[in-house]
């Protein structure tokens, strides 16, 4: 009888843990959606000279547009957690993607994220190509 009680207790505990994990995942997904939507409203486009001079405030929300020139992992497609370089006519920044993207090396993009000396990108959007940059 004790073995059955212990088995059902463990089974109940596992079920409770799994339900809690599922709800945590739903909350995280909702947070990611809200962050992705709102970041574009709050992100500021700083002048290229501010990026090159290191004058962008740390922990500020920024937007930066340029061409993806290289990444530090194999392949051309940018994936979540990849680190890559975005370069425009006069500045370049290092970006770490915390977003699922549909972009690759060579694409012209706008990244929206939080600045830490590099950009932690919450949104990476492909933009129309402009041969001047």
What fraction of residues sit in β-strands? Answer: 25-35%
User: What order do the helices and strands follow?
Assistant: HEHEEEEE
What Rg is obtained from the alpha carbons, in whole angstroms?
21 Å
The spatial strand order of the largest sheet comes to: 2-3-4-6-5
Between the first and last Cα atoms, what is the distance in angstroms?
75 Å
CATH superfamily of the largest domain: Nucleic acid-binding proteins
Helix/sheet category? alpha/beta
Largest sheet: 5 strands, mixed, barrel
Mean pLDDT: 83
- Number of discrete domains: 2
Would you identify the CATH architecture of the largest domain? Beta Barrel
Tell me, what is the CATH class of the largest domain? Mainly Beta
Unreliable spans are none
CATH topology of the largest domain: OB fold (Dihydrolipoamide Acetyltransferase, E2P)
| Number of distinct helices | 2
Overall morphology: elongated
């Amino acid at each position: 009888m004790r073995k059955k009680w212990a088995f059902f207790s463990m089974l109940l505990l596992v079920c409770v843990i799994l339900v809690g994990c599922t709800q945590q995942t739903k909350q995280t997904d909702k947070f990611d959606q809200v962050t992705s939507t709102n970041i574009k409203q709050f992100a500021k486009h700083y002048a290229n000279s501010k990026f090159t001079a290191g004058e962008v405030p740390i922990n500020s929300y920024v937007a930066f547009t340029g061409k993806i020139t290289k990444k530090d992992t194999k392949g051309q497609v940018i994936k979540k957690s990849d680190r890559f370089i975005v370069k425009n006519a006069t500045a370049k920044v290092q970006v770490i993607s915390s977003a699922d993207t549909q972009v690759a090396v060579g694409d012209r993009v706008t990244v929206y994220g939080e600045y830490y000396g590099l950009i932690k990108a919450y949104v990476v959007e492909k933009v129309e190509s402009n041969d001047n940059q």
